[in-house]
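Tokens for STAS/SEC14 domain-containing protein. Go.
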Amino acid sequence: MTTTPILDTRSFPLVWLRAPARPLDAEEAKALIAGLIRLLDGERPYVVISEGGSPALPRDEERSFALWFKSDRDRLARLCGGMAMVIPPGPAHDDAVRQVAKAAAAYPYPVAVIPDTDTAMAWAHSRLERTAP
């Protein structure tokens, strides 16, 4: 398991998703899902900044994530102001833009593929202004 927190809430309401380049192991994936549930249980708006996109999950945890995501869709829509995926310009960025466009209806919040951290933070702050109570 990695020592860097995958879900970093120290800058809340900006929540950093810092997954390793490799797929998560089962323990890491379960911890990620538990962390996301805790965010919603806090009942406070937040925005996720994901460095490199969404982490790859093991098959069993991918299913658990999908079931959770579907069951908490209403709370996600209400509390998550969006997710900025920071992916530098290039083929991976272009692929992510296409994937997000195809899956846009599946997300209960806006998702943007952004080429750099500064732009992602500005986007995240603008989303927080829209979700403030």
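The mean pLDDT is 91.
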